[in-house]
Amino acid sequence: MKKLFSELRSAVMVTLIFAVVCCGLYPLVVFGVAQVFFRDQANGSLIVDADGTVHGSKLLGQQFTADKYFQSRPSAAGNGYDATSSGGSNLGPTSSNLVAAIAQRIADYRAQNGLPRGETLRGLKETDSVPADAVTASGSGLDPHISLRNAELQAPRVAKARNVSVEQVLALVRANTDPASLGLLGEPGVNVLELNLALDSLK
Amino acid sequence: MNTSGWLQLALFAGALALITKPMGLYLMRVLDPKGKTWLDPVIRPVERLSYWVMGVRPEQEQTWRQYTWAMLLFSLVSCVFTYAILRLQNFLPLNPQGFGALSPDLAFNTAISFTTNTNWQSYGGESTMSYLSQMVALTIHNFCSAATGIAIAAALVRGIARHSTQLLGNFWVDLVRVTYYLLLPICLVLAVFYVSQGMIQNFKPYAKAKLVESYTIQVQKTDDKGQPVTTNVAVMVQAPKLDQKGQPMLTNGVAVMMDVPQLDAKGQPVMTNVAVMVDQKVEEQSIVQGPMASQVAIKLLGTNGGGYANANAAHPFENPTPLSNFLQMLSILAIGSGLTYYLGRMTKNQGHGWSIWGAMMVLFLAGALVAWHYEAAGNPIHQQLGITAADGNMEGKEVRFGIFNSALFATVTTDASCGAVNSMHDSFTPLGGLVPMFNMQTGEVIIGGVGAGLYGMLVFVVLAVFIAGLMVGRTPEYLGKKIQSFEVKMAMLSLLILCLTILGFAAWASVSQWGLAGLNNNGPHGLSEILYAYSSCVGNNGSAFAGLNANTPWYNTTLGIAMLFGRFLMIVPIMAMAGSLAQKKLIPASTGTFPVSGGTFVVLLLGTVLLVGALNFLPVLTLGPIVEHFLMLQGKLF
Prior knowledge:
heterodimer, A: mainly alpha, 2 domains, three-stranded antiparallel β-sheet, two-stranded antiparallel sheet, 7 helices, B: mainly alpha, 3 domains, two-stranded antiparallel ribbon, 19 helices, 10 strands, 57% helix
């Protein structure tokens, strides 16, 4: 009994000590270092105007629908790009809901970007197929990127809606592409929010 | 499967091989109460003070029973601690979003989940947990459960390495030293690095951003009292569309479907109440804030896996760049990999340590290649609709990681009992999703969770040696110790608990109302969702086919029990085995001794893992992902 009591004391005490060290001191030290050396990142990489308006975060995607904006990927986060309920569709490979959603998105994407039409792929070349990222929901529902090919297919539409040359738009696409880390890891992606803000500040 | 992917795979495997020895050598010092490290000047005084407050005499070692009791008692106390905070969240500070208390079953499930190093999450972090709950109630277990796992592995290794003794070390000392010397310093460095990549670390309330383009959504209309407004409409069902001759219209041999009103027996349309929807303008985005980096660093290093945000490591804050992704994957396997070297050092048979590591790497690479192959090949049904085949299966994946890093992360996180995810496994192709499920069903011995992976693999080693002994008709020996019926019984017991708990609960859920009610997908994929959930919980992994809505009293409770069984019912027989091995006398090796290093041993060990362990799950895997694969090839939908 005495033995059990002494072990119980150790268990309670070590829980309290760890609560102070691992859950108090440690996050505070990280907080301190982060706020001194990486202030911008530690606070969410926010995009802030000269007048203090927050437009979003460089790292979080937003929903766009107008022709003059590049459009982000479909999102399953809340009602779309809801940054308080991140997540994917979690629909499986044989889900009829997923197939219906993708078929609809493909039709919309083709119509909006003036790609060759067709009820199905039959008769169309593989080069006319739609980039996967344009019609599938991301894991987080907040993916800030689209693939380069997706951006290139949207560029003529955006250029037309804004009355600028396609070359001008493509130059901005390249300028707002995040390359693979160290030139090797991961995939390059076009940051949609930054690209659209850059387009807005063209004139 | 492109060149860049192969290069990244080589880089990852190479980096893992390179850190294994230094990590193992450092573990030698950490797990030796008298070991010296260069952190001593700072940490030694804190360590001594902790022992004094705890009333622990660090030089006093424990028998396997004392060691196990101390571990169980500590787990109980820390579990109750977390349960209390979660239930009282609304009264406690650091809750700027004003989240309410968790329900009893969710708090039970979550407290057990974090205590057992599982980190199964039936909730979405950013919409449920206050900063205090994230930082204290949950993060404390990220350290404790990881340190506990490593301590148990160390005790087992001591049992193997020592002879003619009852003593296996002191649990409290192992717990404290692992936390102070191993986990905290590495996490500190990693957390700051993650912040440099874009991860957040602050204590602000959620930021409000004004959207560049506002948009409208449909929301449910409510009346003055806040009750949803409904209206009566006909129920619609799908029927084949007919042409003028009354023949079904076909496209590519598939019938075209259209909506028609459902009729009852009298030929009247069936009516139902549905919510009235109204437009609502969305002009703001609420941006998550909080102390994320400090929690994420230990979530990976300690193979916990519980995400700060619901999307876990797919969330751009929680895993901002491919570089942070690479380090996260490496830190998941770092300690587990180092422990194999520690085993070799302690037993003075480095070849044995490397052979176990080699067997683990064979299984790791096989899993990674299979998952990568099927995710890159993509979904033929979607490709038929007009998706670029070369892009692979991007549903549930992030552009910055792409196919390869999503498949690799899924393999790594389930090889270890981590459970963090950077893509949604539920949306993987059937065979791509089979890999993470299979990895968990091996008992997570492919590097494995910190500590848990090694002690799980050593169970298979004992069985492999036993089988080899049977084949040549000699009393099996393992590193100079006779393996007798007690050790084999304990090893088999822990294996049977693993497979019986997974299959038993999964079978129960898949024939129960409460089990089926949570499904997000129909057909074989639904079975996969249930099977994945129990595999994940018993394996203390914590990743999910996340479509499954498990936040119900039935799921929360059964999954909670599954996690308890998977953790503690595994550990107790393993500790009994450690105690028994430690007592044995050493017998000198002879020509008949089966060598526990080299190619033959690796093959035998692999065979044991696959045939004794994983084969138990082949029938149910056939009914789930394997049959779904063939149905997908035929274009069948559910």
